[in-house]
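Suppose a colleague, Dr. K., hands you the sequence of a protein chain of 82 amino acids and asks what its three-dimensional shape might be. Before reaching for any lab equipment, you can write down a predicted structure in token form. Begin with the sequence itself:
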Amino acid sequence: MSSPGLRGQSGGPLFDADGLVYGMQSSTRHLHLGFDLENHEIPAGAGTKKVTNMPFLHVGQCVHVSIIKSFLKEFNVTYSEA
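The predicted structure, expressed as tokens, is then:
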């Protein structure tokens, strides 16, 4: 499962469409997209401008709720379900 990979979201919940916890973000992956531009000239006003861009997709990796529930059961932690 994945979520938007924003800084500081690890440990946060992932909700389903009904607002129930579906998982928890555990890490963020930074995937290089391969659309690099180095000193590429683009039109800018009346002239051109050189730009450099190396884009990445930041994707949060999530632990599914079934794994979280198994962990809680293993350590006898009480929880409730809707």
